[in-house]
């Protein structure tokens, strides 16, 4: 499984360091050797943290060709800008671990229904939460 985390944010949200932490090689390797089934081979998470008056809508897209599920996680920059880095990281991790599981559960059924194979969403969610714990505690 390949987990890709990228972001669309402005400097006001102060997500630079968090994004670097999430994409550190040690944390990317956490999912690299895990197999959740042939239906979804990679998950791309886009942290969208822009001015809320712009009314960004959450995008969810599955590429059958790449077997990649792309999911936006919408964050409020006003919640992040004045917090410490540790508090910002916790907010982002909490948002990821709350927003991603319902999408995966839905797509677990969708890929099976379309004959694309199996995907073990519950095991991925368990690993995602464990990964979040590693990030929040700094364990690698």
Written account of the structure:
The chain is an alpha/beta fold. 46% of the residues lie in helices and 19% in strands. The chain has one domain. It contains five helices and four strands. The chain has a four-stranded mixed sheet with strand order 1-2-4-3. A hairpin with a 4-residue loop joins β3 and β4. α4 (85-113) runs antiparallel to α5. The radius of gyration is 15 Å and the shape is globular. The mean pLDDT is 88.
How are the secondary structure elements laid out?
Elements: E1 2-9, H1 16-22, H2 25-32, E2 42-49, E3 60-63, E4 68-74, H3 77-80, H4 85-113, H5 121-137
Parallel strand pairs: 1-2, 2-4
Antiparallel strand pairs: 3-4
Helix pairs in contact: 4-5
Quick summary of this structure?
The protein is an alpha/beta fold and 140 residues long. Helices cover 46% and strands 19% of the residues. Helix 4 (85-113) runs antiparallel to helix 5 (121-137).
């Amino acid at each position: 499984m390949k987990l890709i985390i990228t972001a669309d944010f402005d400097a006001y949200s102060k997500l630079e360091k968090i994004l670097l932490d999430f994409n550190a090689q040690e944390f990317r390797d956490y999912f690299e050797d895990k197999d959740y089934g042939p239906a979804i081979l990679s998950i791309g998470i886009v942290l969208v943290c822009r001015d809320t008056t712009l009314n960004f809508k959450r995008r969810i897209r599955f590429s059958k060709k790449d077997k990649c599920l792309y999911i936006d996680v919408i964050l409020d920059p006003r919640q992040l800008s004045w917090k410490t880095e540790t508090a910002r990281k916790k907010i982002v991790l909490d948002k990821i671990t709350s927003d991603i599981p319902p999408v995966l559960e839905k797509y677990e059924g969708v890929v099976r229904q379309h004959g694309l194979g199996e995907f073990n969403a519950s095991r991925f969610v368990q690993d995602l939460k464990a990964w979040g714990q590693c990030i929040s505690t700094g364990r690698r």
